[in-house]
């Protein structure tokens, strides 16, 4: 009987994983193709304006981690009878937070004055934060291995935004509609989340709200350290575009953003590999230290292979791919892309090591490492952007990603072991091939 239950749970986990990966792949492809059309129509300068607003929005969006998904999921699994109240309370809190952000940016616009198009677009985009009140519903579905509903809601949101972005290309208010598309994406996702959740609960939604201060306090208190960590991560990832937009021209940012668009979509491969292989790493640790290191070697080796294969393909293909997809006006993106794409080697390792840090109780090290990476990226950008513009930004990011993904491991005894495994894993496929041929 127990074996049957375990098989059912495993089957649910596999289906859930397939939905997550499949949904991510569809959204990545649709988003990439959409931005290629938008970039062609806007040109480097206007594309830089919308990307500058979007980068700042992504940093502000980290505030939603005041209700952190990991903490929320654990609470509803531990106290299922309080799920509805937690959903209602968290949704209202996130909506209120979104409204506050919209109001603050509007007040800033009044006091700053002048024609700051990017600030106006940011103000519109931040309306989407109010609609992220549906996040707790997404967390519920994920916790119960019902991610298909979240995937459908998010995918329809992306498709709706893509249609509006395509339509905007043929209008004189292209930039404005691009900002509204970000709100539409979240609006569609929000409506579908609430619809699916209402159907899932069968009896519909119940909006009675019991303010349990102890429960709310625990949720916020446990989420706060993770909010700081998420903040450090998003600054680490997005500060380059914000600084380039502030220190150089929006045209430079538009050119750089194309390199980012060509480098970022591959993260889902790392996520799929890590989610698939890391349980084997944990299992290996239970067996022996040697088996643990063997599984880590395989994980880092596969990630290295993917990153190098992507890096080589994009480096060779960029001179042809960028003019074809984005137009000759973005030809300056070629060299920047050929530098930035290699950061995936260290970013893939960084994502894998995050789970290792949790497993080995090195969470504080992970936070310090991320903060250091963000600080290093900022420092290098201050020096290199005035000299080399977008290329300086790419070099800064590559160096910062190297230290966070691998280089800083040399400073702690336990992580030195991991550094050796990372370096050794670079030859994983070569060793596997030699073993097979011999």
Distance between the termini: 45 Å
Order of helices and strands: HHHHHHHHHHHHHHHHHH
Number of strands: 0
| Average pLDDT taken over every residue | 86
Instruction: Characterize the quaternary organization of these chains.
Output: single chain
Biggest sheet, open or closed, and with what strands and sense?
A: none
What structural class do helix, strand and pairing data support?
A: mainly alpha
Estimated radius of gyration: 23 Å
Indicate the proportion of strand residues. Answer: under 5%
Work out the helix count: 18
Instruction: Provide the low-confidence segments as ranges.
Output: none
Task: Briefly summarize what is shown.
It contains 18 helices and no strands.
Please, could you describe this protein's structure?
With 438 residues, this protein is mostly helical. It is built from 18 helices and no strands. The radius of gyration is 23 Å and the shape is globular.
């Amino acid at each position: 009987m127990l074996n049957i239950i375990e098989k059912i749970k495993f089957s649910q986990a596999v289906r859930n994983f397939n939905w997550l990966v499949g949904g991510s792949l569809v959204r990545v492809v649709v988003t990439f193709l959409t931005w290629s059309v938008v970039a062609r129509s806007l040109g480097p300068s206007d594309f830089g304006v919308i990307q500058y607003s979007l980068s700042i929005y992504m940093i502000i969006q980290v505030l939603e981690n005041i209700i952190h998904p990991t903490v929320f999921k654990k609470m509803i699994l531990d106290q299922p009878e309080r799920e509805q109240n937690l959903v209602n309370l968290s949704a209202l809190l996130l909506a209120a937070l979104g409204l506050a952000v919209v109001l603050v940016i509007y007040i800033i616009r009044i006091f700053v004055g002048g024609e700051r198009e990017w600030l106006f677009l940011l103000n519109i985009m931040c309306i989407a934060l109010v609609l992220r009140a549906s996040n707790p519903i997404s967390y519920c579905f994920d916790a119960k291995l019902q991610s298909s509903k979240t995937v459908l809601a998010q995918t329809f949101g992306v498709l709706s935004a893509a249609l509006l972005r395509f339509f905007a290309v043929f209008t004189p208010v292209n930039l404005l509609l691009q900002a509204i598309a970000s709100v539409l994406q979240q609006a569609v996702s929000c409506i579908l989340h609430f619809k699916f959740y209402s159907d899932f609960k069968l009896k519909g939604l119940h909006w009675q709200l019991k303010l349990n201060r102890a429960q709310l306090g625990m949720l916020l208190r446990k989420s706060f350290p993770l909010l700081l960590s998420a903040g450090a991560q998003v600054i680490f990832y997005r500060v380059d575009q914000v600084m380039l937009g502030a220190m150089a021209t929006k045209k430079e940012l538009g050119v750089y953003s194309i390199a980012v668009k060509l480098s970022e979509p591959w993260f889902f491969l790392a996520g799929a590999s890590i989610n698939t292989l890391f349980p084997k790493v944990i299992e290996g640790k239970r067996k022996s230290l040697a088996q643990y290191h063997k599984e880590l070697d395989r994980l880092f080796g596969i990630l290295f292979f993917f990153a190098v294969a992507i890096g080589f393909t994009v480096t060779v293909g960029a001179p042809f791919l960028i003019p074809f997809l984005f137009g000759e006006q973005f030809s300056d993106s070629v060299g920047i892309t050929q530098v930035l794409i290699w950061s995936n080697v260290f970013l893939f390792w960084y994502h894998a090591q995050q789970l290792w840090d949790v497993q080995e109780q090195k969470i504080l090290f992970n936070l310090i490492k991320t903060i250091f990476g963000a600080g290093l990226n900022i420092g290098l950008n201050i020096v290199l952007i005035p000299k080399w513009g977008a290329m300086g930004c790419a070099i800064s990011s590559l160096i910062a990603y190297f230290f966070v993904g691998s280089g800083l491991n040399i400073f702690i005894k336990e992580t030195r072991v991991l550094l050796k495994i990372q370096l050794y894993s670079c030859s994983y496929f070569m060793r596997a091939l030699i073993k097979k041929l011999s």
